[in-house]
Amino acid sequence: MLGLDEGKMAVNLARNTITEFLESGTKLEPDSESLTPVFEEERGVFVTLSMEGDLRGCIGHPYPDSSLKDAIVDSAISASTRDPRFPPVNLQEMSVIAVEVTVLTPPEMIDAAPEDLPGLIEIGRHGLIIKHGFYQGLLLPQVAPEQGFNAVDFLNHTCIKAGLAPDAWLTGAEVYWFEGQVFSEESPRGQVVEKQF
């Protein structure tokens, strides 16, 4: 678990990375001496950008495949310039964009019968990954409470995100869960808080 100060470091690293990349096209090299040891640990992470309450970009590393600091830098650049759902962010927008960083636990396959899944998933605690063949979709833990989803809605929408039928979780798709710590700017460049759901 990260402390709030580390959460602030994570969000600041994401914002500074985006600003540097948009200003100069260069990738920020994180200063390890100004970060705590947790940033050297391999962690999954997502960077989410929102503008006036609407999503403006969200990309990350679902699995702990690189150090937290490197995953934040890569995810921040990708969320701001490579999310296929949105045009790239421009520098002027960063004054009205709020930055959020979600640090993930490693995903684990849920070992349960499909019909039992809704009773196991805790809204606000669990994020989901659903896989079937080449298809894969992920929704972060904060999505369900923010969208008012119950567990069945959450499963259905994760399937849709994967490009699958909404009920694929009942018909053979693999379902994984993970947890996340969510650190977010309350307003663009504002105070960073840890969100609780």
Model description:
Pfam families: AMMECR1 (PF01871). This is Protein BHR79_05465. The chain contains five helices and eight strands. With 197 residues, it is an alpha+beta fold. It has two domains: 4-104, Glycoprotein, Type 4 Pilin (2-Layer Sandwich), CATH 3.30.700.20; 108-178, Hypothetical protein ph0010, domain 2 (Dna Ligase, domain 1, 2-Layer Sandwich). Strands 1, 2, 3, 4, 5, 6, 7 and 8 form an eight-stranded antiparallel β-sheet that branches. Helix 1 crosses helix 2. The mean pLDDT is 97.
What is the structural class? alpha+beta
Shape call? globular
Look at the structure and name the CATH superfamily of the largest domain: Hypothetical protein ph0010, domain 1
> Helix share of residues?
25-40%
| Ends distance | 16 Å
Task: Give me the CATH architecture of the largest domain, please.
Answer: 2-Layer Sandwich
CATH class of the largest domain: Alpha Beta
CA radius of gyration is 17 Å
Count of discrete domains? 2
Number of strands: 8
Uncertain stretches? none
Arithmetic mean of pLDDT: 97
Strand count, sense and barrel status of the largest sheet are: 8 strands, antiparallel
Number of helices: 5
Beta content: 25-35%
The CATH topology of the largest domain corresponds to: Glycoprotein, Type 4 Pilin
Order of helices and strands: HEEHEEHEEHHEE
